[in-house]
Amino acid sequence: MAGNVKVGFIGGGKMAQAIASGFLLSGLVKPSDIIASAATEKTLNIWKEWGCVTSFSNKRVVDTSQMVFIGVKPHLVLQVLKEIHDNVTGQHIIVSVANGITTTTFEKSLPVGTSVIRTLPNMPCAVQAGMTAFCRGKNASDADVTLLDELLVATGVCKEVKEDYLDIISAVSGSGPAYIYIMISALADGAVKCGLPRDLAQLLAANMVGGAAKMVTQSGKHPDQLKDEICSPGGSTIAAIHEMEKNCFRGTVISAVEAAVNKSKAAGRDNK
Q1: pLDDT of the chain along its 272 residues, tens only?
Q2: For the CA atoms of the chain, what is the radius of gyration?
């Protein structure tokens, strides 16, 4: 059961913290059942404040955990896998959080038969509103996937997908919150320019985005249909959308996604 699993994080940065925060907020994993390693005391202090175990030793994380999240930067993954190779056993589930690195690359760098699952979480996991896509390596069992799924649902929505999709998913749900933060900031700036106080403008913009997203996921309607339902003939909304389209809003977003996909694929090629 997920509540009894010992969870380790190699690389205790922002994404690892977001995932662990979701686990802790749900109460599914106790702080004492989580261990994290990092290169600096400053990073580890955050985990200590949560009551988690900390270490500068990646090997210790493996030795004291069943499920180990590899959350270091992509260019450090192979170095870390080489370091922990001899400590990984058939009882471990190795979970990648590294963008662009394939399950095959992990499996080649770890003992034969190691269970590997590749995930793409996002930062809203920290408030249990995340979106995590994952795929299993060739040695990951149904039981391994079920255990991970039971943990990840504490951070939001999770879905198993084909590995070929992950670079694209990274550009949408992984990087996407950053795009939305810019949109929220810009909406608030527009409202401030027109006379609203900053705190009210930001509150309106942020809650509007959350509500609009919920309409898409719960109504089953296409986003363009929902858009059309707001656009009254000759109204203010269609006038605003005209301005957005004149300035290539859709084209810019599409190009942003494509750029992020290409960057993710390049990371995978560089770390085979």
Answers
A1: 566 889 999 999 999 999 999 999 988 899 999 999 999 999 999 999 999 999 999 999 999 999 999 999 999 999 999 999 999 999 999 999 998 899 999 999 999 999 999 999 999 999 999 999 999 999 999 999 999 999 999 999 999 999 999 999 999 999 999 999 999 999 999 999 999 999 999 999 999 999 999 999 999 999 999 999 999 999 999 999 999 999 999 999 999 999 999 998 887 777 76
A2: 21
Cα–Cα distance measured from residue 114 to residue 90, given in angstroms and rounded to the nearest whole number: 6
List the one residue out of 105, 20, 12, 97 whose CA is nearest residue 58: 12
Check if the beta carbon of residue 156 is closer than 8 Å to that of residue 174: no
Alpha-carbon distance of 77 to 83, in angstroms, equals: 10
DSSP SS3 for 70: strand
Amino acid at residue number 216: V
SS3 call for 83: helix
Neighbours of 168 (CB within 10 A): 19
Beta strands 34-37 and 53-55 are parallel
Cα–Cα distance measured from residue 261 to residue 54, given in angstroms and rounded to the nearest whole number: 34
- Count Cβ atoms below 10 Å from residue 21 Cβ, excluding itself: 20
The dihedral built from the CA positions of residue 95, 98, 101 and 102, taken in this order, carries a sign that is positive
- Whole-model pTM? 0.89
Owner of token pair 């198993």 = 160
CB atoms within 10 A of CB 206: 16
